[in-house]
């Protein structure tokens, strides 16, 4: 067996530093854990980019599901961190539900997703929109229930994040959670 070349060592270093892993016959990027994306987050939620956004949303709609998408401005911004625990709890709680799937997109990393119809509502960032057969690829915005910023209203200690999902998919949550 020949020793690795300098080119191989540099490639390996880049792969290790960027979090890219090689699996059989494919290479994929695994986002690093953060307060917004804890370990296991990507088991429950799809990482969306401008390349896969429309196809992921369309696939959910074709399957008769609603896709909730959290739009964040940049990775780990303070408002995103405030809302993350409630989002992550709901995403995990509804795992396997036949009516709903979830996605995350960082707009700074997907510049083609800026502007209408992806702008936040009056409550600011991060914003969560949903997409289903009724809304199509334009989606629909969350309608605020309080005067709080969206990161607070849909944040930990409130029931609004789960209510939002249940209001859109219907109160019958398929046994995925307790009654409100």
Approximately how much helix is present in the residues?
Answer: 25-40%
Strand order of the largest sheet: 3-5-4-6-7
From the alpha carbons, calculate the radius of gyration and give it in angstroms.
18 Å
Largest β-sheet summary? 5 strands, mixed
Number of helices: 6
Q: Rough shape? A: globular
Terminus-to-terminus distance = 63 Å
pLDDT < 50 runs, ≥5 residues = 20-28, 173-180
Give the SSE order as H and E letters: HEEHEHEHEEEHH
Q: How many β-strand stretches?
A: 7
Q: Based on helices, strands and strand pairing, what is the structural class?
A: alpha/beta
Mean pLDDT, to the nearest integer, reads 74
* Percentage of β-strand residues: 15-25%
Describe this structure in words.
The chain has a 5-stranded mixed beta sheet, with helices on both faces. Strands 1-2 form a two-stranded antiparallel ribbon. By secondary structure, the chain is α/β, with parallel strands linked by helices. The N and C termini lie far apart (63 Å). The protein has helices spanning 6-18, 41-44, 53-62, 78-93, 150-153, 160-169, and strands at residues 20-23, 26-29, 46-47, 66-72, 100-106, 127-131, 140-141. The chain contains 6 helices and 7 strands. The chain is globular and about 60 Å long.
Essential attributes:
about 180 residues, alpha/beta, two-stranded antiparallel ribbon, globular
Give a brief description.
It contains six helices and seven strands, in the order αββαβαβαβββαα.
């Amino acid at each position: 067996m020949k020793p690795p070349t300098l080119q191989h060592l540099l490639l390996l270093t880049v792969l290790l530093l960027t979090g890219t892993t090689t699996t059989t016959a494919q290479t994929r990027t695994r986002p690093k854990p953060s307060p917004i994306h804890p370990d296991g987050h990507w088991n429950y939620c799809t990482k969306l980019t401008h390349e896969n956004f429309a196809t992921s949303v369309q696939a959910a709609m074709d399957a008769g599901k609603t896709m909730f998408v959290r739009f964040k401005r940049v990775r780990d911004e303070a408002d995103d961190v405030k809302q993350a625990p409630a989002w992550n709890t709901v995403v995990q709680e509804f795992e396997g539900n036949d009516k709903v799937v979830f996605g995350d997109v960082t707009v700074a990393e997907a510049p083609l997703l800026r502007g209408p119809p992806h702008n936040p509502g009056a409550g600011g960032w991060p914003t969560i929109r949903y997409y289903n057969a009724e809304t199509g690829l334009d989606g629909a915005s969350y309608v605020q229930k309080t005067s709080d910023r969206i990161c607070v209203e849909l944040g930990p200690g409130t029931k609004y994040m789960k209510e939002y999902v249940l209001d859109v998919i219907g109160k019958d949550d398929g046994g995925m959670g307790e009654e409100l």
